[in-house]
Design brief:
Number of helices: 1
Helix content: 10-25%
Order of helices and strands: HEEEEEE
Largest sheet: 4 strands, mixed
Strand content: 25-35%
């Protein structure tokens, strides 16, 4: 095989491996939104009490920017959720 043929083969293999690695990478976090349209980032999905009505979205979801949603970048330590702008632990 010529030098150019090897280069093309190696480049193609590298591209295939890169695409495979990207598609297998899970989201680094989630965006959780309560039924009161308070949203926050969560590193893992956990089961919330039913009355909170948490909806889970991928980390790339931009819907929280809508005027009807409130996004809280700061999440206090411990398990909890936002209720009308206030963090409630549970």
């Amino acid at each position: 095989m010529s030098g150019l043929g090897k280069l093309i083969t190696i480049g193609s293999l590298g591209a295939v491996l890169a695409v495979g690695a990207l598609s297998a990478t899970p989201a680094s976090a989630y965006i959780a939104c309560s039924r009161w349209h308070d949203c926050w980032r969560a590193p893992v999905r956990v089961a919330y009490p039913a009355h909170v009505g948490v909806a889970w979205h991928p980390d790339t979801w931009a819907g929280y920017r809508a005027p009807s949603y409130h996004y809280w970048a700061t999440v206090p330590a411990g398990r909890g959720y936002y209720y009308r702008g206030h963090w409630r632990r549970w």
